[in-house]
Design a protein that fits this description.
- It is built from six helices and 16 strands.
- By secondary structure, the chain is of the alpha+beta class.
- The strands form five sheets. Strands 1, 2, 5, 6, 9 and 10 form a six-stranded antiparallel beta sheet that branches.
Length: about 260
Amino acid sequence: SVRALSALLKVDDKNLTMDNFESIAGLLMETLHGITNLQLAPFGTVQKIHPLVDSQQDNRGAIGHALLLDPRRKGGALVAIQSQAITMVGPLKLLQGGVAVIARYAIFTPFASEFLPDESWSRLGVTYTRICSDVTQRNSEECSFPGPIENGTQTYFWGFATMLTLIPDLLRPLMLESLEEKMALSKFVSFKYQLRDTTPHSSMKSVGGIFAHSAFAGPEIVLESPVSVKISVPEVEVEWELSLSLVEGWPMVSFDFWI
């Protein structure tokens, strides 16, 4: 989805993708399932989100979010620009509420300006500012991001195309909630589970990186003798761990059982 948006923007010299974003994003979301919303952030500042509001999300609070000025997001945004590849961030807590995984792609086009515009962004009474128009105050490392040369033409950073997936949407195909239902093994049992990021985003460290759990296994709960399995996808820097424990506790087994 973000590559499709990038392909459109790379040849768009009349801003048609921005003007028709809702229609384009709607079509992509109908075709590609599992997406909670799509976003465009020219110069790194969120201007378009589809859907903006629906039954499970209200993203109006994210409009105007300056990713390159927000200290909590700046590092990940710069990594996306420098890598010129799709990068995944999260699970992380969102400004507008909820926990999500974000796939972000930096777009470079020959129609983008060499320098980013001046901008200010505030949070909790603190204002962060970028000045690029005044050469005496310009920080070239924060004001200009040259991209690859394409067909003999220098490209520059246009902004980000972003795909956001809320954790419930991401995990729905796994049906983890079925672990909480009574299932027949040697007897009818049910499980408690926790799913955590072993290298958590700063916004998730207070809960130990746990971003999904069963009803009676919140982040404050320590599972009894859990069985854990690693989930590793190095290409997108996913290092997760799923831990399981019986709701009723593990049965007692004598030493003779193992002989």
